[in-house]
Amino acid sequence: MLELTDHNYQSVPSNLREEHIAIEWFEAGRSLIKRNTSADTPTQLSRRFAKYLQDGQIVYQNQELFVRIVIRPCVCMVLRTHDAVVIGCFCFDVGNRHLPVFSVDDNAFAVAYDARLYEALSSKFKGLISLEQAKLIPVKALHQF
Question: What structural domains and CATH numbers belong to the chain?
């Protein structure tokens, strides 16, 4: 079993084999993840240096391989608009359910799919809400100041 920590290697020689550990968006803040890599190598990843694991982060490297974190895309409810008032209402409605809102593109905001919330949001924001596959990246979550 490979014992990994959340190092962030910046440069990797091109001759190394790449393996990845796929995680869900809500696992990025976990302090311990036990998972097999894409090549079935058992790993135990301890998060020690940062608040969240990042998509594409290289957490391990030796003479043969490197291991990269991949955050899986999930079904999301996405609001696309340039209207700040609509964005504010969307964030308020989602925030009342204590769900994180993520910025996914310019003027596009997403939240993980929830059937009841989707019905409520799609009726309130007619034509502005769609279901899409998206990566919810922790550093792109909107935070209260």
Answer: 2-71 (2.60.260.20), 74-140 (3.30.70.790)
